[in-house]
Amino acid sequence: MRIILSDGRVLGIETSKDADIVYISHAHSDHSRKGNIFSSQQTFDLLNLDGKTSILHKIDKDVILHPAGHILGSTQIEFTNGHTVVYTGDMKLREGFTSERAKIVKCDELHIDCTFGHPDFEFDSKEIIADRIDRWTRTRLMTGNNVVFGAYSVGKAQELIYILNKYSNITPVVDQNIEEKCKVYEKYGIRLDRVVIGSKEAAEIMKDKFVYIVPFNLVNPQSEKWLTTQYKQVSFAIVTGWAKKYRYRYHAFPLSDHSGFSEILKYVEESGAKEIICHYGNAVFMSKYLRSKGYNSFVDKEWEYRKRCNEPLRKSSTKEQLMISIQT
Ligand SMILES: [Zn+2]
What we know:
Blueprint: E1 2-4, E2 10-13, E3 21-23, E4 35-38, H1 41-47, E5 53-56, E6 63-67, E7 75-80, E8 84-87, E9 109-113, H2 126-142, E10 146-151, H3 156-168, E11 173-174, H4 176-187, E12 195-196, H5 200-205, E13 211-215, H6 221-231, E14 234-239, E15 251-253, H7 261-271, E16 275-279, H8 283-292, E17 297-299, H9 300-310, E18 325-327
Parallel strand pairs: 2-3, 3-4, 4-5, 8-9, 9-16, 10-13, 10-14, 11-12, 11-13, 14-15, 16-17
Antiparallel strand pairs: 1-2, 1-18, 6-7, 7-8
Helix pairs in contact: 2-3
Bound molecules: zinc ion.
């Protein structure tokens, strides 16, 4: 998906293919590491890109960024040439402890995150999940266990640190990767009490029962074996929205940075969009569901195909024709 700006430059949406500028909705995206990036400053800082990359803060008067509520600095993009198009990127309407909630943007054409676009996925409020994490963690510690959590290094880990600080009065030990991202959160005023593995403070904390947060993929049978040998009694847990539906080897909390089914429906209804294009995860189900309710809805690939077949490429449009045109 891409946009042609009024000056003829091509803006790639989450992709750098043939684009002059790449819009990156949030710091989980891993599409482009070179050239000109259009994103929030927080996203740019979290991506920690090399010197070959520069951030553009404003690219066209008709292109606007809005909060997406997913992680620090996540945005939705709105663009218009008399026909308003919104691409939400990963999006959450619920409020998080370390991220603001998404804004519902009125539009004609809505490209929406449907990762959890199925009735199996309705998420509890942050307070309910925090309470469950707090009670489980304190119980494990009180019964003589150390606790190791697996969480995505950006977003989920910071949310978890915040919960452990505020609800459990615990300062967790964190992996170096997570520490780097925490520094960016702190730069934007989000206080996170933690110590980094390998430091004197961490060694001190780990003499007693401790909570250690590692990247999600490091909670696995190999690390389980190593940490259990090292620290004897260890309880493992992960945080992921998929825990609403699937069983895991480890205790799993359904802490999600995405909207659940009802939130997606709410966005669709309140946006007033005439066309809804479903992206990611449960896009196929969500698109079918929306069609059954009378919406004009498509899966992203279907939409792209339809656009290619039905519309001439607008890149060749004369300058007078459009301020911005959209290509998929
Ligand atoms: Zn994401």
